[in-house]
Task: inverse folding
């Protein structure tokens, strides 16, 4: 059995390391992440969350800002703690807390490359859930916090310039995942490099490439290890058990997948190959989405810290919302697809 697991894992890795897949499926994800880290202004984004900022604008921005300001879940908690303690609204702060690990850019595009429609549904659902969590948390706890924030300065978010050059490069790379033929993907990738050459100074370009390479070195070995382990596990975990627990298209299966995902700890992006293996073993698409939505955003250690930072009432409300909204997103996907 161990030899079979080893063969399964190695065969999957060899398939995953196909040069065309690496160049046109994986490399753009790290180039996008590097561009966001190097070419976008983090301080400008954070100014939208300051004391007195319009809460609806702040929640909306926070729902996507996690992708801009962080790559892995380990960096979100310290940033959330700082935001929360300096007076960011409970709505924007919790939207950001969810969106960081759930919507990091590498996860978006690697999910799409490995999981297809389920990967895209995960990304879109993550933004919607981040919005919903922020709105509900603000409705439940925002008034009390607003009283404590009286007299603090208004946000200067209106003065923040739009980094259009960085956005142009990022959106061009996103288009790589939207076109079908490998020829067009290659043309777009070449266009991105050319755009970067004309739009940015040498130091900016080198910073972009350094960030991308640094993220690749940090994340890709973990991703490969996750691919190996997820494939090898298929030998040890009976497919019948996965089908029995997570196969039915039901809210019960989805909520169970959400709870299990919330308890487990995932290194950055390892949830993607694990979920693909579970789908191949019989997990329904709805349960897979619920698992993907709750897993990166929560873990047992992070739940303990969240309760310590926000207090038990707010912390458990946030955790419950993540679990329930993740299961609902899985059920909605099954309803329409």
Result:
């Amino acid at each position: 059995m161990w030899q079979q697991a080893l063969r399964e894992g190695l065969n999957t890795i060899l398939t995953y390391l196909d040069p065309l897949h690496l160049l046109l499926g994986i490399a753009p994800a790290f180039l996008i992440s590097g561009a966001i880290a190097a070419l976008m202004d983090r301080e400008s984004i954070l100014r939208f969350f300051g004391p007195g900022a319009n809460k609806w604008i702040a929640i909306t921005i926070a729902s996507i800002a996690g992708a801009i300001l962080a790559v892995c879940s380990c960096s979100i908690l310290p940033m959330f703690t700082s935001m929360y303690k300096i007076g960011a609204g409970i709505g924007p702060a919790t939207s950001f807390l969810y969106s960081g690990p759930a919507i990091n850019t590498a996860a978006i595009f690697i999910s799409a490359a490995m999981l297809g429609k389920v990967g895209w549904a995960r990304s879109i659902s993550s933004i919607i859930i981040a919005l919903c969590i922020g709105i509900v948390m603000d409705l439940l706890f925002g008034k009390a916090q607003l009283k404590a924030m009286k007299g603090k300065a208004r946000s200067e978010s209106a003065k923040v310039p739009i980094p259009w050059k960085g956005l142009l490069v990022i959106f061009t790379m996103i288009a790589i995942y939207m076109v079908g033929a490998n020829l067009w993907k290659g043309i777009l990738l070449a266009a991105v490099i050319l755009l970067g050459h004309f739009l940015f100074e040498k130091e900016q370009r080198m910073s972009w490439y350094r960030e991308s390479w640094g993220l690749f070195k940090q994340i890709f070995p973990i991703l490969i290890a996750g691919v190996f382990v997820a494939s090898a596990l298929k030998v040890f975990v009976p497919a019948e058990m996965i089908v029995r627990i997570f196969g039915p298209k039901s809210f019960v299966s989805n909520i169970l997948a959400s709870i299990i995902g919330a308890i487990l700890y995932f290194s950055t992006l390892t949830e993607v190959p694990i979920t693909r293996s579970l789908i191949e073993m019989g997990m329904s698409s709805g349960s897979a989405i619920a698992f993907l939505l709750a897993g990166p955003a929560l873990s047992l250690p992070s739940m303990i810290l969240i309760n310590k930072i926000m207090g038990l009432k707010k912390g458990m409300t946030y955790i419950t919302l993540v679990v329930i909204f993740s299961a609902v997103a899985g059920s909605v996907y099954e309803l329409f697809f």
Summary: The mean pLDDT is 81. Residues 164 and 224 are 34 Å apart (CA to CA).
